[in-house]
Amino acid sequence: MGKFKIIETPIKDLVLIETKIFRDNRGFFMETYNQKEFEEIGLKLNFVQDNLSLSKKGVLRGLHFQFKYPQGKLIRVIKGKVYDVAVDLRINSPTFGKWYGVELTGENGLAFYIPEGFAHGFLTLEDDTYFFYKCTEIYYPEYDSGIIWNDPDIDIKWPLEKVEELIISEKDKNLPKLKDIIDKLKEEGNWIKI
Ligand SMILES: Cc1cn([C@H]2C[C@H](O)[C@@H](COP(=O)(O)OP(=O)(O)O[C@H]3O[C@@H](C)C(=O)[C@@H](O)[C@H]3O)O2)c(=O)[nH]c1=O
């Protein structure tokens, strides 16, 4: 088998990627992305921007998406631990409004591929969490959009018992609910349909 293996999630096109880790007495080595091997497992992607964020424990970033020029994101935690969540916002998707969450760590070798058309957010479960992701579209601040992390209609089960205090940006505290933006998403030509 190759160095990468797809693990399906209950949401179509939203996948985890198990990665081969070469361990020895120095530590480990792993490839984190390889265009040819990704194409062989069905992920033909064109990345144009890489991002890195550092967070302390209890930081919640999200739920974000780019309304125009949506971004696919290939995510890895380099150090630390997060609970990472994607929400399907693709119009006509049988799983529209459904979420999927997974624990990513600096050690478990798991990557998460979130395609265009999803909102994304994460909660850090350890201090000094380095969160790295590759994007299929560049950042357009004017189209930066989001949904509030605790939207009752989405009802994400964040593992909040694992943190003492949530740390959220002012921008993220004021994001709308899905029901307030759904009409805008559904307007013809505005957003991703499947
Ligand atoms: C996302 C982003 C932010 N910035 C700037 C804008 C701002 O001054 C500063 C911090 O931005 P934010 O507060 O939006 O950063 P953050 O809350 O970490 O935003 C990220 O959250 C996760 C959940 C995602 O899915 C990402 O796509 C992105 O939206 O960095 C860029 O220059 N380029 C970028 O691509």
From TrEMBL:
Pfam families in alphabetical order: dTDP_sugar_isom (PF00908)
Keyword Nucleotidyltransferase: no
Active site residues of this protein: 64 (proton acceptor), 133 (proton donor)
GO CC, one annotated term: cytosol
Catalysed reaction equations from the record: dTDP-4-dehydro-6-deoxy-alpha-D-glucose = dTDP-4-dehydro-beta-L-rhamnose
Alphabetically ordered keywords of this record: Isomerase
GO molecular function, one term: dTDP-4-dehydrorhamnose 3,5-epimerase activity
Site (Participates in a stacking interaction with the thymidine ring of dTDP-4-oxo-6-deoxyglucose) residue list: 139
Keyword hit for Aminoacyl-tRNA synthetase: no
Listed pathway(s): Carbohydrate biosynthesis; dTDP-L-rhamnose biosynthesis
EC number: 5.1.3.13
GO terms (BP aspect): dTDP-rhamnose biosynthetic process; polysaccharide biosynthetic process
InterPro entries associated with the record: RmlC-like, RmlC-like_jellyroll, RmlC_Cupin_sf
Assembly behavior: Homodimer.
Family of the protein in this entry: Belongs to the dTDP-4-dehydrorhamnose 3,5-epimerase family.
Reported function: Catalyzes the epimerization of the C3' and C5'positions of dTDP-6-deoxy-D-xylo-4-hexulose, forming dTDP-6-deoxy-L-lyxo-4-hexulose.
Annotated protein name in UniProt: dTDP-4-dehydrorhamnose 3,5-epimerase
Species this protein is from: Dictyoglomus thermophilum
